[in-house]
């Protein structure tokens, strides 16, 4: 007896039905909407806050730093979140009986213990040895946990003793040690 061969037209119709089903399930329009939803979530913040006051304390309950800002927007891509801050004013508290650092800028970002100040950054500190010290730069990144600040941008440092300009800075905020990295030029006042 002769074995029956499957008819090729049945296979062809089955394949066409499968393709039509797949096309109806995953149309180009649906794919475009999925991409549009992803773009929308990246453009808009998850939250918006006004009149921010953020305080961080150490394990002993001592105030380490405080940040005040006009507003903040929180963004997240699902794994990493950061905050865009408008007009931040940051106070870094130092060792006992030492004046705190006062820092301000037009804009900033905050992410996992790191604050980056941008646009007209101003840092001030009153030191026993040098009097009032002011630092100005375009961008300054602060590790609030280590109380360490750094930038690779031009910096101007003023004190009662004169003005110093440099490119780049490392500052240990807790003990007041400031290292200017390159192209240092100073004018001293008597």
Provide the descriptors you would attach to this structure in a database record.
single chain; 190 residues; alpha+beta; lipopolysaccharide transport protein A fold; 2 domains; six-stranded antiparallel beta barrel; 2 helices; 18% helix; elongated
What's the number of helices?
2
Sequence stretches where pLDDT stays below 50 over 5 or more residues: none
Write the H/E string, N to C.
HHEEEEEEEEEEE
- N/C terminus separation: 118 Å
CATH architectural group of the largest domain: Sandwich
CATH superfamily of the largest domain: Lipopolysaccharide (LPS) transport protein A like domain
> How would you describe the shape?
elongated
Beta-strand content: over 45%
For the sheet with most strands, the description reads: 6 strands, antiparallel, barrel
Oligomerization state of this entry? single chain
Named CATH topology of the largest domain? lipopolysaccharide transport protein A fold
CATH class of the largest domain: Mainly Beta
Q: What's the mean pLDDT score? A: 80
Alpha-beta classification: alpha+beta
Quantity of strands, as a count: 11
CA-based gyration radius: 29 Å
Amount of helix: 10-25%
């Amino acid at each position: 007896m002769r074995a029956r061969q499957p008819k090729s037209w049945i296979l062809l119709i089955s394949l066409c039905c499968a393709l039509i089903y797949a096309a109806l399930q995953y149309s180009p329009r649906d794919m475009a909407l999925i991409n549009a939803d992803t773009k929308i979530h990246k453009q808009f913040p998850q939250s918006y806050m006004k009149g921010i006051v953020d305080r961080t304390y150490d394990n002993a309950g001592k105030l380490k730093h405080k940040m005040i800002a006009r507003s903040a927007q929180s963004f997240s891509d699902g794994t990493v979140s950061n905050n865009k801050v408008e007009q931040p004013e940051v106070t870094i508290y130092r060792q006992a009986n030492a004046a705190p650092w006062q820092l301000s800028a037009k804009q900033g970002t905050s992410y996992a213990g790191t604050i980056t100040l941008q646009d007209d950054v101003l840092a001030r500190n009153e030191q026993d040895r040098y009097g009032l010290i002011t630092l100005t730069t375009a961008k300054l990144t602060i590790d609030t946990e280590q109380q360490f600040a750094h930038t690779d941008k031009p910096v101007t440092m003023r004190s009662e003793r004169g003005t110093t300009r440099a490119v780049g800075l490392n500052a240990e905020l807790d003990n007041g040690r400031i290292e200017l990295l390159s192209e240092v030029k100073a004018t001293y006042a008597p």
